[in-house]
Amino acid sequence: MSFLEDIFERLRRTGDQPVLREVRDGEFVTITCAEFMRDVQIARASLRQTGLKKGDRCALLASNSIRWAVIDLALMAEGAIVVPLYARQAAAELVFMMKDSGASLVCCSNADLRGEITEAWPEAPPICLFDNIFETSSSAISTGPILLDDSDPVAIIYTSGTSGEPKGVILNAGNLNHMLPCTVSRLDSLMGTQSEPEQVFHYLPFCFAGSWILLLSCLLRNSLVTLSTDLNKLALELKLASPQYCLNVPALLERIRTGVEGQIAEKPGLIQVIYKRGKAAWLRQYHGEAVSLDLPWLWLAKKLLFSQIRKKIGPNLKALICGSAPLSKETQLFFVMLGIRVLQVYGLTETTAICTMDDPKHFTPGRVGPAIPGIEMQLGPGDEILVRGPNVFTGYWNRPEATRAAIRNGWFHTGDQGEVDEQGNWAIIGRIKNLIILSSGHNIAPEPIEESLSQALPGAAQVVLQGNGHAFLTAIITGMVTQEQAEEALAAVNTELPHYKSIRSFFLRPEPLTIESGLMTANGKLKRDVIYSHFKSEIEEMYRARKQGA
Q1: What value, to the nearest 5°, has the Cα angle with vertex 345 and ends 342 and 349?
Q2: Within 13 Å and on the Cβ side, how many CA atoms surround 131?
Q3: Percent of the chain with pLDDT over 90
Q4: SS3 of 217, please?
Q5: Helical (H) or strand (E) element with 540
Q6: Are residues 450 and 527 in the same domain?
Q7: DSSP string, 326-379
């Protein structure tokens, strides 16, 4: 059976159970498996009336919702190729991707979004609003999905475009038929045997490959997924959902850690001392360096602070799953200290979102786990991670040259620098194309240094290193950071670095880099080339001033 047949079978088998729910004004709006299946049939009937055929590309433009999931399954069940798009992106970028994919239909959540698209693209194909899609009777539709071969495309997911134009990644049924059993197996290992539906909280946009894979995995499992509908109320919604696990990006976990430690810094002196000494004692114990005086401080911290912090974050959490970018080891250890496992996942859209996954029972903080079953990984020139297996995409849509450059001799070249330990656990060092090459010839991965400086500057929103072709590194620092704070942080970070990695100058910008400004991708990654162009005069001035002062 295909992944779609398995999902349909699970939904039919557990018809009375709730499967998805949205948080609306502090209340749950819930749909059962039977109601979900009914709505899939309604959507399929409506989509057929538009003339949709197997192999047609259909753009899905909306924020996360129950209806998004319904229409996604309906489109795939009809054999259409789904092109999921991020509703917050600029209309011009959305139009580019819809044109590039050759979309013959657009499914859109509301009239405002439709208006933005038609204004930017008067010749747009038919745009169906969600409300209209669900007006059709379902009586004439069959219940089973159209049969798909492994080679049949099911989605074109556009890369974030950190440099250059976004490219459409073609994922086929075979990619998902391999990946979903892998994710389901790992979630089985995490959750164990339980009679009640597992509680899952989800806030990351479904148009991102990892987020979509988790949705499909949950639809295959005995899960109840709570969908966030307002990121400004994320903390309240997380508390209301009280999940056992959820998928995260590092930025959120970093904010939680810095937020907790910032609150502790405002508590009475005794609380600060207990936390500081308890944390130090726990870290020494973790590294096998415990001393006898650690025991009372660790006991106090666990009793008075760690358990209370964990309860506030999520009393039922079995794990936080983290992907999209490397998570700092310090932050991962912070949650482990509180008794919350943080399990890392590594992958790209081109690898159906996943290459490695932490084992819930045996994971190493600072690493992203071993390769999933059936996947081969090795290091190429420059320690680039190469991947081969049934998770690797078939190619970029209408970009044969880019496909040939990415897949060579059967291996997908990820562009990520990595390393692997004797147990087969991988670590991600940085991006090959992000390497800064100084005039001295030194090649520097910026990400670890940026992470260290960010850790030393809690008020910083972003740190972006510069230095290609220059004699030394400089930094752009955004957020609420003073000159004095930046200088102190640089002095502390530089002492831990070799001379050629030292940051010699910086400039401050209070406004953070944003998606809306075009300086970050839809999933929050830095557009380094765009950032350099945007701040070129400021960067050149840093080097000019440093040279004159030398």
Answers
A1: 145
A2: 3
A3: 76
A4: helix
A5: helix 536-549
A6: yes
A7: PPPHHHHHHHHHTT-EEEEEE--GGGTT-SEE-BTTB--TTS--PBPTT-EEEE
Query: E strands of 194-338, at which residues?
Result: 198-202, 223-227, 245-248, 319-322
Burial class, 336, CB count within 10 angstroms (exposed 0-12 / middle 13-18 / buried 19+): middle
Taking the C-alpha atoms of residue 101 and residue 523, their distance in angstroms, rounded to an integer, is: 20
What are the φ/ψ torsions at residue 220 (nearest 5 degrees)?
A: -80, -20
Name 291's Cβ contacts closer than 8 Å, sequence gap at least 6. 284
Q: What is the CATH number of the domain that holds 474?
A: 3.30.300.30
Where does a domain end: 432, 455, 472?
432
Q: Do residues 440 and 428 both lie within one domain?
A: no
What is the tens place of the pLDDT at every residue in 38-88? 999 999 999 999 999 999 999 999 999 999 999 999 999 999 999 999 998
What residues are paired with 378 via a beta bridge? 386
Residue 515 lies in domain: 435-549
Q: Residue 354: which CATH number?
A: 3.40.50.12780
SS3 of the chain: helix, strand, coil, percent, to 5:
40, 25, 35
Instruction: Measure the CA–CA gap between 53 and 533, rounded to whole angstroms.
Output: 43
Q: 372-403, pLDDT tens digit by residue?
A: 999 999 999 989 999 999 999 999 999 999 99
Give the C-alpha separation, 317 to 321, whole Å.
Answer: 11
Considering the domain architecture, whether residues 360 and 442 belong to the same structural domain is answered as no
Angle between helix 329-337 and helix 269-286 axes, rounded to 10 deg: 110
Give the residue carrying structure tokens 């989605």: 155
Q: Is residue 208 part of a domain?
A: yes
Domain count, the chain: 3
Query: What is the predicted pLDDT for the residue at 231?
Result: 83
Phi, psi of 290, deg, nearest 5: -65, 150
User: Which tokens hold the place of 309?
Assistant: 């912090």
Under DSSP, is residue 417 helix (H, G, I), strand (E, B) or coil? strand
Asked if 254 and 248 count as a contact pair (C-beta separation under 8 A), the reply is: no
